[in-house]
Design brief:
globular, alpha/beta, 12% strand, 8 helices, 185 residues
Amino acid sequence: MTQTQPIPLHSTNRTRAVFLVGFMGAGKTSVGILLGQRLGWRFVDLDRQIEARVGKTVANIFRELGETAFRQMETEALQKLLHALRDGDPTVVALGGGAFAQPSNRELLESSAARVIYLDAPIDELRRRLGEDDQSRPLFLDAERFRMLYEERQPLYRLAPHRVQTAGKSVIEVAREIESLLGES
């Protein structure tokens, strides 16, 4: 009996999907939108897809259902997206800050052969970008929890095959660097 192999989302000829990962405030959505425009690809924010499906914000999902329920929704949404991308249009995807920290999500991305790029920035830069009172990010409000979570996730983000430092760079500079990395420029 032969085992079904996943259909890769990129080959040596053409990348079909790029997933941006990193901590909150790293620029995944801002860079993803611009990168999609520059490449002529569609852009998907996985958190926004979850919000649209559930009819609640991520903050409300965390508050009402808890982080565990959100993480399950996130993995299900990622599975569906990866399946849809096999035959779909080339796409840039921004994952939520905790998505790549989940082993099941990393396995899904690895088995799909998706291009994963870690957008990195120092914690002080991230806090500055997010402002002091970002109520839409439930894990941002407690400064000590923010720092601990950042430190906990750094080794996991570094498992991504590609890393782009975003500190001190404009969104367009980061998008150009990713284009260069993809060989699309």
